[in-house]
Structures are given as C-alpha cells and as structure tokens.
Amino acid sequence: MAAWAGLAGAAPASAPPEIVRIRVDGVIAPSSARYILRAIREAEASRAAAVVVELDTPGGLLKSMDEITKAMLNARVPVIVYVSPDGARAASAGVFVTYAAHIAAMAPTTRIGAAHPVAIGQDGQQDKTMLDKVTNDAVANIRTIARRRGRNVDWAEQAVRESVSIDEAEAVRLKVVDLVASGLDDLLVKVHGRTVTTEAGAVTLDTRRAKVRTVAMDVTEKFLDLISDPNIGLILMTIAIYGIIFELINPGAILPGVVGGIALILALASFAVLKVNVAGIALILLSVVFFIADIKVPGHGVLTVGGVLSFFLGALLLTDRQAPFLRVSLQLALFMAVLTGMFFLFAVGAGIRAQRAAVRTGIESLVAAEGVARTELAPEGMVYVAGEMWTARADAERIAEGERVQVIAVDGLRLKVRPLTR
Description:
alpha/beta, 2-enoyl-CoA Hydratase, Chain A, domain 1, CATH 2.40.50.140, 6-stranded parallel sheet, 14 helices, 16 strands
C-alpha cells in the first residue's frame, strides 16, 4: 500500500534513500533468476527506493525468464531495467524482462528485440506444432505484461513472432521503453519524481540523492552461472570420462576416480540446466566405445577416426544449435574430440597393453639375466645367476670358468647361456 512511500518519506533528511543495483550480463539462466529474485527480496527487506537491473543479454531459458518476470510483476519495490552499457542488447528473454520492469531505460547505441522463442525439449529437437504452441504462449505472455506496464503491445508481439529489433531511440518513440540515459547517474536523475504502481501501491521515486548499493552474485549464483555454459558442461563431461576410464584401467589409483566422479556429477547438473540433446550424449559415449575397441582390436586407426568424428558431432549436438547462446563452441568441440582421441590412443592404450603383457615369474624371469660361469661349460657346466647355482648349457663350444655369461633361454631347469666377453 501507500505506506511504503510514506515510510520512505518519513526517513530523516540526513539518510538518503538506497538504490539496490545489480548487473546481469550474459544468458538468462537459473543463476540470473536467483540473483534478481534475491536482489528484489533484499530491496524489499531494506525498504530501498528501487532496484536497478543493468541488463545485457542475448536471451536465455524460458523457465528462468518466467521466474524473473513473475517476481518483477509482484515486486513491492520499484524495479528499473536499464539496458547498458553502450552497445548492449536485450534480446529474446531480455525483451520480456525489460517489459516487466516498472521503468525501462536504455543506454545510447543499445538495442532490444528478436524475442522469437526456441523450444528446447529433453532431446533438443523441435517440431513445428510444438514451436507454434510455445510462440503463441510467449505472445500471450508478453501482451499481458505490455498491457500491465502500459507499453507497446503490438510491437511486443512483432518481436516474438517476427524477431524484429530496434535501437534505443526507436524504442522510446514506440513506447517500448520509457527513456534513454547516458549512465547510471543520468538514469537516477531522469526517473526521479516518477510514480509507478507496485504491489505495495503507488510509489513516487526519490532517486536524485539516492545512495547506490551494488549487490554481487553470491557463491551459489556464480557456480550456477558457470555450469550454465554448455562449453563448461562439455569440458566437465570429458574430464569425467578421462577420470573414470583411467581409474578402471588402473584400479586403486583413487584420484582419477574421485576427480572423474565429481566432474560427472557437475556435468549432470549442467545438463539438467541446459536440457541437453540425448543424441549428443549417445554419440560421445559411442566415441568412447570406438576408442577402446581400436586399442583392443587394432583396426589401423579406422575406429579412432570414427571415435573422433563421433565425439565431435556429439559435442555439436549436445545443445540446441538454433539458440546461439546455447551452442558449444565449434573450436572447443574439435579440440576436445582430438584430445580425447589422443588420450585413449596413448594413455589408455599404454595401460591396456601393460595389462595384456604376460607377467614373467619363476625361472622364466631369468631370461636376459647376467651371471658368472663357476665351472667350465663344454658345453655344459654350472653358472651362478640371480644368487643361485644353475645347470647351464653354452650356446658356444666352450665357456671358460669365471667368464661372465647372459641367460638367453630356459629349458626346464636348465639355462642356455652365452658369453658376454665375446
């Protein structure tokens, strides 16, 4: 109710009102939603004059966008979205977030628009019927928000259906946003005295002398922001594969298994956020099968090439290619594919070959050992090898007593030796 404004007005003149400022730069994801919602809660709890969200985004996930717009529409504190700095954009989900603000502003040389949705399913695929449903729902949503905030309803629908985009001057002319400001200080001067309607009632903004308090992302939000990057998800999955495979061929190493297990859990958390394509994961796992098969059953590198190709394609298909902000980097996909091929070819291959090699025990382990002839070998006699006396047969006609010898073969309990001095 109006008590919000009344309490703010009752504050001592020496205590300037507070502005809570946050910076959302990048994809609208669970981290962004949690960050914005926390800032709004903190501002409401501290009776701040407003929340300023400095925004620069290519778009993001529908679920996270819905959480943000819902919080803004139900906020008891004025929320100002400021598309900044110069050159920034509010695209796709950013349009909805900007529209939901009580006051929307843009910096010079910024743009807004291109809000056509990308429907991402569990398998990353789309069909026209599903996309039409998502588009119609998005149109209904943004039209409702536009009417609630008194913004241009028709342009909002165009932004969703036709992906139109406009600059800051056109946005003000079309009543898409309220004003253009050259910086935060200019913004606070220009919004001073404006009256907006929040869930607490009508609030007249007192921002000219406000004290700005910047709220940064906390540890959890930074972590969520990190794993929301599909490139990070791919790297985590690759590390998980390396660690687990290395542990399997070297039981008891422990560290590779621990690292691989942690990386696997983090990769799954990343994939849960991104809703990855199952076909992409399947291709990556298939590449592992190819690599191991080429080591166990040599195929002149054909399976290794197939593994690199399978990994590369799987990495590209891991997330939806139609959403630019959800794409795995082409360069990273190629690098990780080649690196994984080399890992299996050299590291894993060496381990498997070592396991496959026969372990020599007992008398057979004496082959290549050196010793001394304790009697003349003509051609048979006694030699001292590996701390014991053995019956031996010379491969030459005669080996003199005291001459150094080397074991070249074992025949039952008899050694075959050759002289080392010839």
